[in-house]
Batch of 2 targets.
Target 1
Amino acid sequence: MVRKTFHKLRELLPAALLVLIASFLLIPLAARSAGQKGNEAKGKFYFKQTCKPCHVKGEKGGEVTPLVKTQAQWESYFAKGKHMKGTEPLTKYMTPEQLTDALTFLYNHAVDSPQPETCGK
Amino acid sequence: MNRRGFLKLAATGAVGASIVELESCKSPQGNAAGKNAAPDRVEIASTCDMCLNKCSLIAVVEKGVVKKLNPNPLNPKSRGMLCARGNAGIQQLHDPARIKRPMIRTGERGEGRWKSVSWDEALDYTAQKLAAVKDKYGPEGTLWSSSEGFQEEFFRNLSQAFGSPNTVRHPTLCLASVNLAYSLTYGTVPGFDVQNARYIIMSGANRLESFITPDTMALVDATTARKAKLVYLDPRFTKTASKADEWFPIRPGTDAAFILAMLNVIISENRYNKDFVSTYCYGFEQLAEHVKQYSPDWAAEETQIPAKDIQHIAREFADAAPRAIYYAGRRSSWSTDDFAMRRAQAILNAIVGSWDRLGGMVPAAKIELGELLYLPWDDPKASRVDELDKNFPLAAKNDGVYLKLRENVLAGKPYPIKAWMVYKQDPVNGIPEQEKTLQMLRQMDFVAVIDVQMSDTAWYADVILPESTYLERLDPIEMQAGIRPVVLLRQPVVKPLHDTKPCLEIVQGLAKRLGLSDYFDYTMEKWVAEQAKTLPMELPLEYLKKHGVYSPPEFPKYGMTLTHDHRFITKSGKIDLYSERLKDAGYDPLPVYHAPSKIPDGQFRVVLGRHAFYTHANNTNYPWLNSFSPENTLWLHPKPAHTLGISSGDTVEVASSVGVIKLKATVTPKIRPDCVFLQHGFGKRSSWQRLATSGGSDAEILETAWDKVSGGAAMHETMVKVRRV
C-alpha cells in the first residue's frame, strides 16, 4: 500500500509540478517550510536518489555532500530555488515537499550543524 | 576445560545438563554439524562479534564444524590478534544454553518457564501484542532498545517505520560524554595515535587490563619498545598502573581538576603551541582567563596529587607535544560532571597542538561504501519520552538517554510506554539500579527480546526471538573509520545450528505482519552488493569474501586538516576551545570544575571496572572465559578491612541506598582506603547463565545518576556500607 502510494506520487509528479511550481515561485521555500521542518530520512532518500547520480566525484556536477555548505547557506540556496548556476528551478527535480525534506537533511548535516558522534552506527 | 574437551562434551550434550530446558542441538535443516557434503577443511575469513572491536578472523571449518578461530593478519587494526574472547566465539556457537528456537513465556515473568514455538507463532504473537499497544497508546507507547552491531540498523528502522520515536541505544551507558565533548570541540571524535605517541596520560582507562584493542597493543609497543612515558590516574593499582611510569591514586571524580591545573600551568608558562592555537582554535583568550583560578596548589587539594607533580607532568606533556595525548579511552561516564572533564581533556590536547600529527590525535579517516536506498517512512508524530530536546539538547538524538528515559517511563510521563522491544542488549544486568529496571519491566504489557543467549532481560521477556550467531550469518559490510580505516565483511562460516534467524529476517517477519513490508523489501545479499560497489577494486564482494577485510594502503595520513582553509565541523569553524554552542544551550562554554560529593563516614565510594575476558555483562557464561575469573569479589583496602574485621574470602554485604548484594571480599592494598571495587557482569538472575550467577551484580547497588550534559550514566556516584556476614 505504502509502496503503491509512493510510486503513484512519482508517476503524478509532472502534472503536480505545474501547480506546485507556480506556488513555489510565489512563496519562498524557506518561509513556507520553516527551514528544517521536513522529514530528514525522506530528505536523505530524495537527495541520494535525485542529486547523487550527478553530484559525486568524477561526475559532471562535482561532489556535493551536506558538508559543502553551512546551514545558512543551505537555507539561502533552497530559498533561491535555482539549480545549474541559476538556469533552472530546483522544482524541475523535486516537488516542494521533497525539497523541504531534502533541505532538512542537508541542513541537519551541514558543516556547522551539531553532529554528536555515537558508538557504532 | 580445554577446547577439545568442550567440543566433545558439547557434541554429547553433557555440557550444561543442569540448565533449565536444555534442548538438543539439531538444526531445522537436519544435523547441526553439516554431515553430508561439507568439505573436509575450509578456511573462511570473517569478522568477530565477541566485543565491539570487530577484529578479523579466519574460521577453520572441518566437515561443517568450526574447529578453530584464528586471527586474520590482513587487518591492520587487529594486527594479527584474536583475543581470548575471540577464541571463545566457538563457545557462543556451541553454547548448550543458547536460545535454540523461538519461545513464549508460560509462567510468571522471571520464573523461567517457556514453551518452544514456531517462528510463525512467535512473530504472530509479537506483532499482535505490538499492534494492541499501538491501538491503545499509539506507536509511541512502544520502546525499542538496542546496542551496536552490524544488523542493529534494521531493528532501529523497524521502530521508526512502526512510528515510535523511542529508540534508546547504549551510548549513555558507554561513550556519550566522550563523543559529545570531542564532537563539540573538534566536530569529530578523533583516534589517538598511541602507536607513535611519546607521552600518554590515562585517567582510569585501564587499557592493559580491561579491553584488548589495537590501542592496547600499541600501548605495549609504546611503553616498552619505544619507552614512551605513561602517566596513569586511577584509585586502583591496575595492571595498567603496574606498567606506568607514574601512577597516582587520584581521588575519584577530581580528574577535571588535574587537567584544568595542567591547562593553568601550560598557559601561564607560555608552553602552549601559539601558532596552532592562533590558526586553528577559537576562544583561547577566554580559556586563558578561565583557568587562572585552577592553580596546581588548588588542584593538589582536590585530587590529592602533589602540586609539583601536576606541574612537572604539565611541562613534560607540553614539551612532548605534538606527540603527547591525554587519552580519552573507552569508558562510560563516572561522575555527573564527566562531560566537563572530557571537554578539558579535548582542550588540553588542542592547545599543545597534538592534532592531526604523528603521535597525537588524528581525525578518523573513512572509506566510502555504497548504500542501498530503501523506501523512507514518515516521522513519528510524538516527541521522545525522555524529552531529549528539553533535558539534553545537545545529545545524539537517536541514542536517547537511558536513565532519564527509565525515570519518565516509570512515571508514565509524558505518556505511557507499554511495550518494550530489546535487541542485543541486557538492561537488567547492564544499567544502574536494577530494581527500577525490573519495575519498568513489570509495568509493560509486552516485552520481547532478540538475542543469542538468555540474558537477564530475556529471562523476564514474554517472547524470545533467537538470533543466529555471528558465525552463522551474513551481515552488512561495515566500514570502521579510524587512523587506519578498514572495511569488514562478516559472512557465515557454518549454517545455523538451530532454529534461529538473523536480525533482518526477524525484522522482516514482524514488518510483514505489521503492514510495513514495503520498507524492508530487500535481501541481505542485495544490501551487501550495493555497499561493495564503491570499493576501488574489481569484483569487490569477491575480494571481501576471500579476504574478509579491505584496508587501503595509503593510511595513516597526517595533516589533512592542517590547512589554513580547513573548516572544522563546529560552530566557529575552528576547534572550539570556547563553545558558543554550549553557551547557547545553557551550559558552561568552558569546563567548570565541581567537586565530587563527600564520602560519608563509614562508607565507601564504589568504583567499577571491566576485564578483557568479558564484554560488559556478556561472555561470563562461556567456560573458557569464566575459568579465568569465575566470580567477582569486592576489593577493600586492608585498613578499613581491619576495622571491619574482614579478611579475604569472607562473604560481605554491600549496601547502597537502592540495593544490597553479597559477594566475597578481596583485601588488597591496590585500592584507595575510601573506595571499594567490583567487576561488572556477575550476580546474574537468568538461570541459563549458570556460570555467571555467582558474585554480585553492580546493577543492583548503583544509584541513578547521570552526567549533566550528555546524560551518560554516572557510574561512580554511589556510596555503600560494607559488613561481614
Target 2
Amino acid sequence: MDLEAIRTDYEKRYPQLRELSERLEADVKGLLRDVPHIDRIYFRAKEPRKFVQKCAKGAGSAYEHPLSEIEDQVAGRVLVFFLDDIEATVSLLRRHFTTVESVRKTPEKHDAFGYESFHCVFTIPPQVKPADWHLVSDPPVTFEMQVRTLFQHAWAEPQHDLGYKGDPATPREALRELAWAAASAWGADHAIQRALTIIRGGKSDA
Amino acid sequence: MKLLRAFAYTVEPSRLTQPADVSGGLIPPDRSFALVLEQSAKPIDEDGVPIAFNGTDPVTRSHPVRDLCRALALEVPAKALAASRALAERLARATDSRSETALFVAAVYSLEGGVRRLHLWTFPREEALRFRAGKDPQIEVLTDIFSKRSHMRKGARFEGRDDRVGFLNGKAFDYQAHYSARQVADFWIVTFLGAQLEITASAGTKIVADCLRQAFERSDTAAEKDELYRATIALRASRRPRWSLKSFADEFLPSVDLRQRLLDLAPNAESRSALFDLDRAELESLIDTRIFRLEDGVMVSAPFSTVGKSVQLSGDQNRLLRYEGKVVKEQLRKSSRKRG
C-alpha cells in the first residue's frame, strides 16, 4: 500500500469531508433540537495523519481500498445524560438516516468492564453532500455515529491518549485500574438512571 | 466502462403461482445490444432518485437483494447466472395479474479501480403490428416485444467492489413512484428492490418544512406569504404520499419567481429533485401555526385551522388582522423584543 499516495488523495478530499461533517452536524442538531437530556452533538472529519495511521494498522492492512472502505472519515457523536436516552436518540437517528449498521458495544463477558457505546453506520444522504462532492474520487458512502452517556464518554475518551491498546506489556495493575474506572462509570450511569426513575415516581428495575 | 455480462428473462406475474414463471438467461453482449443498454441507462442519470437498501443485517450487512446484486456483479459466471435468475423470480413474485409480462434485464459493467456497476431494468410487454407491403400485403401481430420507451419501464443502478461498503445504495428511476396508489408507487423500489428512498420521510419532510419557513420569512409581500401559506395547507391535505421539493413547488406555487426562490433554499441541488415520503404528522408538527406581529407589538399566534375563520386578514400592502375570541388563559411574561 502506497501510504504517501493515500495521504495525498485524502488531503485532496479533506475540505469536502470537513464541509460534510459541518452539514451533518447542523442536520443532526436540527433533528435533535427539541430532544431533552442531550449534552452535546459534534462531528469531525478524520485528520489526514490519523487516516494514514488507520490505513497502516495491522500486518498487510485490513483495507484494500481505504479511501472508500474506511467508514469514519466523517463521524459524529451524541452525548446524553441518561442510559434511557440512548435508545430514544438512536431511534430518532435511525428514522432520519438509512441504517447500515446498528450495534450496542459492550464488554463480551458479564464480569468484564470496559468500553460501552452505541455505534451506528448510516449512508451519507443526498441532502448533506457538499456541492462539489461529485469531485471526490472513490468517496465513502457511509459515516459513523456514536451515542453515549457522559459517564461512558468520560471513560472512553482518554483511552487513545493512554496508548495501551494492543500492547501485551501493559502492566496488569494498570488494566485493573482501567476496569475499575469502567465499572465505576457503569455504576454511576445505573445509579443516576435509578435516581431519575425514583424521582419520576416509577419503580427502579436497574 | 466495459460491458462484462448481461442477462435477460421474461417475467410472468407470479405472486399467486408457484414456481415463479421466468424464462431466459445469459445474453451474448453484441454491439447493438450494448448500445441499447447504454441508451436505456440514461434515465438513471436524468430521472433517477437516490435509494439505499433497507433493513440490511446490522452486523453482517446481508440483504436479500443486495446479496443477489453483489453475486450478479462480482461472482463467477455460474453464480452470477443463478443470482440473475433469482432476481427475475423475485420480480415475478412481486407482480400479480394486474401487471403485464415484462422483460427483466441485468447488465454488469467494469469500471476503473476494480469497481463493478450493475444496471437492472424492467421493460413492459407490448403488442405491435408488423406490416409487409408488396403484392400480398400482410399484417402480423407481434406479441413478443418489449418497449424500451414505455413510461412503465423502470431501472436501477448499484455499484461497488467486493467489500462491506459496495452496493449499499444506488439510484432508481420509476415514473410511477409518485403515484397515490401505494402499491403501485412502492412496487419497484420498495417491494422488488427491498430499498427505500435515501432521503427518509423524516429528513424530506423537514427539508420541505424548513424551506417553507425560510421562504415565508424572506417574502416581502402579503401575496407571496399567502401563496406559501396556501401551498402549505394544500400539501398537508394532499393524499399523494411521495414528493420532491421540486414537485411540491411545481404543483402548488403558481409564481415562477417564488418557486425558484423556494428551490434555492434547498440544502443542495440533489435534494431539490430527490423523492421522499411525506410524513404528514411530522409536517403538521413542524408547521402548524402562523404568527403575526402587529404594529403596536401585539403578537397573534394562530393555528392554521383558525386563519381565514376566526382570524381574518384583509388588505395587501397594509394588512389588517381581525380577531375576537374568549380568553381562556393569561400569562405575565418578559417581552422577547430587545430594548433600544
